[in-house]
Specification:
The chain is α+β, with helices and mostly antiparallel strands. The chain is built from 9 helices and 11 strands. The chain has 3 domains: 59 residues, Helix hairpin bin (Helix Hairpins), CATH 1.10.287.610; 127 residues, no CATH class; 135 residues, D-amino Acid Aminotransferase, Chain A, domain 1.
Length: 356
């Protein structure tokens, strides 16, 4: 049955508008309309799709609500392996210098050669996910698994508001790697709700041990309706297969492209030059963790201040609003970047990595 042109145009306009407002709300933390107005637009689109099933497309905002309960997760072979990071467990300044020295040796650099440029980021403690987009539409989401084969968790990932269902001006094929995690304040609110359910006598309810387990368990729920109830967040930090995309020269350029395509990228990343800058970044983050938490994670703030002090910061005196790992480390992971650049996969431990 052919859909009248005016209805098709209205559905297209509603999808575009809802995608825009979702990006403003979940990624930029800059909502332009109240929740009631968003809900009104959402329900209008939902009604049109129910009346005209031909209008339903995979990237419709209505598809975030959740699908049928699965019997199990299908296996997914990663076209580009999801490799683990290599860590340097020495969290003193010597660890950064050893890390930088090892990278320089592996690249065949001599003592008088210029410092290596690194991208220094935080590493958030969650679950690694690979998002595959074809023609700008999210077609698959998979867990890391053993690095070669993961599990298809597309239905659950669709419920995460920060993950775009459709991209603009993206490559024909784009695999984005990132971390699904749970903010600490969201985790505490979730446990408070769980305690209230238990107090009311609800069966089979429990509190969660830590944010990472809560996030990982939500992603691996066979019922996407349950996953949707969990307050999950996402950060992009890398890529897998790209077909038809730009030839990136640095990892920083990759992160900026991901941000331009609509993915949330950590605002606490800097381009560091050599081991001294890595040490300064690590110490600055340590001081920020040790101090009072005045800014919300959702409210964008500037990168941590730089410092050349030589002493390590004290342990955090209060809990940050995102999951904190128990230790810090320097880390490296392979990447197809042609020039030596860096990244640290996210967490509250500070990491850095270099690539050929």
């Amino acid at each position: 049955m052919t859909v009248p042109a005016r209805i098709q145009e209205r559905a297209d306009a509603l999808r575009e508008l809802l995608h825009h407002h979702a990006h403003q709300y979940y990624v930029l933390d800059a909502p332009e309309v109240p929740d009631a107005e968003y809900d009104k637009l959402f329900h209008e689109l939902q009604a049109l799709e129910e009346q005209h099933p031909e209008l339903l497309v995979p990237d419709s905002p209505t598809q975030r609500v959740g699908g049928r309960v699965l019997e199990g997760f299908a296996k997914v072979r990663h076209r580009v392996p999801m490799l683990s990071i290599r860590t340097e467990t020495d969290i003193e300044a010597s660890g950064a210098r050893n890390f930088d020295g090892r990278v320089r040796r592996e690249l065949g650099l001599k003592e008088g050669d210029a410092p290596i440029e690194y991208v220094a980021e935080l590493k958030f403690d969650g679950l690694a996910i690979s998002l595959r987009y074809e023609g700008g539409v999210l077609v698959q989401a998979a867990t890391r698994g053993d690095g070669e084969i993961g599990e298809d968790v597309t239905q659950n990932i669709r419920t995460v508001g920060q993950i775009p269902l459709r991209l603009r001006d993206a490559p024909a094929v784009l695999e984005v790697r990132g971390e699904v995690f749970m903010r600490r304040d969201d985790f505490e609110r979730l446990n408070e709700l769980q305690r209230e359910k238990i107090a009311r006598g609800a069966k089979n309810e429990k509190t969660f041990v830590n944010p990472r387990n809560a996030a990982a368990g939500a992603v691996r729920q066979l019922d996407p309706g349950i996953a949707r109830q969990r307050p999950l967040s996402f950060f992009a930090y890398g890529w897998g297969e790209i077909v038809g995309g730009p030839a990136f020269e640095t990892h920083h350029a990759v992160l900026m492209a991901l941000k331009a395509w609509g993915f949330p990228v950590s605002d606490r990343l800097v381009v560091a030059s050599g081991a001294d800058d890595l040490i300064a970044y690590h110490q600055a983050v340590g001081r920020e963790r040790a101090g009072p938490w005045r800014t919300s994670f959702r409210r964008r703030s500037s990168s941590p201040p730089w410092s050349r002090s030589t002493s390590m910061s004290a342990a955090p005196a209060s809990s940050p609003p995102w999951p904190v790992c128990s230790r810090s480390s320097w880390a490296a992971s392979p990447s197809p970047t042609r020039r030596c650049t860096t990244r640290t996969r996210r967490g509250a431990r500070t990491c850095a990595s270099a690539t050929r």
